[in-house]
Specification:
Length: about 325
């Protein structure tokens, strides 16, 4: 078999009811180039491995599984194993419970990147299927035109859905992720890292389906947990030299996330946690000289507990101490 131009990286764990549709949607791609499918089968306890072996036997030149003997987790499975096994010039990402719905998805994206060398990433619109309700939600992102995006756009909001992507392999900073395997949201961090090397292109067409179900990666996570994971990721990024010029923008996002976590913590009645995150938000607001937000946090704390002059001074000391 000739060297594949594209490597499709699929991580899967206990996706027995879905993996067949996922793999069929990849095999159905109509291209004028060869591609391979790297599957990280993470020691599933259901019939996922059986189905993967079936496709491996049927398409031995395309399907190239990595069968883990013990569960290694999503981050290691994706970055340490699958991505490093990819031989293609480009990498498309997919999870075993999602699938592609456009048979020309890869062809269009390759054609674009082959002729636009200042771009490092392609993505498109994604449908969300809510399994328990047997319906499709609004597609994401809700952009209605083809457009380009850069680092600042992605810091403000994640415009990229993983299962719609195609990126240049040589622009992926694998080392960053191998050093930060504790990240809970690796894909978003990857698009931000990629954006430092070139632009992203959003194609206003639905190319994939993200499935929300009880066993899904994010389906069980409340906004509160997701926001904490995002805050952790941005904290990692702002400490790296390559993001130095974007520190103010990262602080702004961290300020907003900390505030949101504080609000949700307050609603949940967790006083220790929500005050902690309001304090964090205040710290970031000082770093970017956003005093309106600073006093907004003070007001929230005041509404939540008796804020005396003494406790206010202590609070300021804590914030100043943490600025460094």
């Amino acid at each position: 078999m000739q060297q594949p131009l594209v490597s499709v990286s699929i991580i899967t764990y206990n996706h027995g009811p879905y993996i067949r549709q996922c793999l069929e949607s990849v095999i159905a791609q109509k291209t004028n180039f060869s591609f391979e499918v790297i599957i990280g089968e993470d020691c599933s306890t259901d019939n996922t491995r059986v189905i993967v072996r079936e496709f491996e036997a049927k398409y031995p030149d395309i399907i190239k599984p990595i069968y883990h003997q013990q569960n290694v987790g999503m981050m290691r499975n994706g970055f340490e194993f699958c991505y490093q096994a990819c031989k293609g010039k480009y990498i498309a990402s997919l999870e075993g419970d999602d699938y592609w719905c456009d048979p020309y998805k890869l062809q269009f994206q390759v054609d674009f990147l082959e002729t636009h060398h200042d771009y490092v990433l392609c993505s498109s619109k994604c449908n969300t299927y809510i399994e328990d309700e047997d319906r499709f939600d609004e597609p994401y992102p809700n952009l209605n035109i083809n457009t380009s995006y850069g680092t600042l756009d992605l810091i403000k909001k994640n415009l990229v859905t993983t299962n719609t992507t195609l990126c240049r392999k040589d622009k992926v900073d694998i080392d960053f992720f191998l050093k930060n395997l504790d990240l809970k949201i690796g894909d978003y961090g990857m698009w931000l890292n990629l954006s430092l090397n070139g632009k992203g292109f959003y194609y206003n067409k639905i190319s994939s389906v993200y499935r929300k179900h009880k066993g899904g990666v994010y389906s069980q996570n409340a906004y509160f947990i997701n926001a904490i994971s995002l805050l952790h990721m941005f904290n990692k990024l702002h400490k790296t030299k390559k993001f130095t010029k974007y520190k103010k923008h990262l602080y702004n996002r961290m300020m907003e996330l900390s505030y949101s976590i504080g609000i949700f913590g307050r609603l949940a009645g967790n006083q220790k946690n929500y005050i902690k995150y309001f304090v964090q938000s205040m710290k970031y607001s000082i770093l970017i000289l956003n005093f309106t937000f600073f006093f907004k946090c003070i007001l929230r704390i005041f509404q939540s507990c008796l804020l005396t002059a003494t406790t206010f001074k202590i609070l300021l000391c804590i914030i100043i101490f943490n600025l460094n």
